[in-house]
Write the structure tokens for this entry.
Amino acid sequence: MLIGLNLTSFHYEVISVLGNEIQKANKGKNMDSFHDNGFNKIQKVTVLGNNYFLWFPKYIFDINGTNDYKNYYHYGDIKTKKIILLMGPHFIDEMTRYNDTNAHVGGVGELLFNSNLITTVVENQSAIPCANAYPFSSLVDLDPWAPSKFDIRSNY
């Protein structure tokens, strides 16, 4: 009975949307390139978010190490024009965990202000049919603090 439950579809959906957005950000027209009419030149992107979701695109999809993946924000660390933000409920705390000065918190605020919402991925809470009944009740408490909603934002 428990094998038929798909409790990880939310995580796969977040990773899938993030991977697609990274691919879209890497492609596009670059006016600085004169060969191939400016197309097909890889444009580097910086992805800011939780390590729980960043390892998959970094080590599986980005074999050449084209992009930058950061689980914290440090002013001056971002060397790319394109930025993707994977925002969970504790995004600002994660980005400023090593330095919570006003400059860093303001830098994260500026990134948020200059970004556009691409999509919101929300976990399907009805995936567990009887959350209060015996075999399912322990599944809900596997990680009670796990985020169930992520916003994916970009500055382009």
In short: The helical segments are 9-26, 51-61, 91-95, 102-113, 134-140. The beta strands are 45-48, 68-70, 82-87, 116-122, 149-154. The chain has five helices and five strands. The CA atoms of residues 70 and 77 lie 9 Å apart.
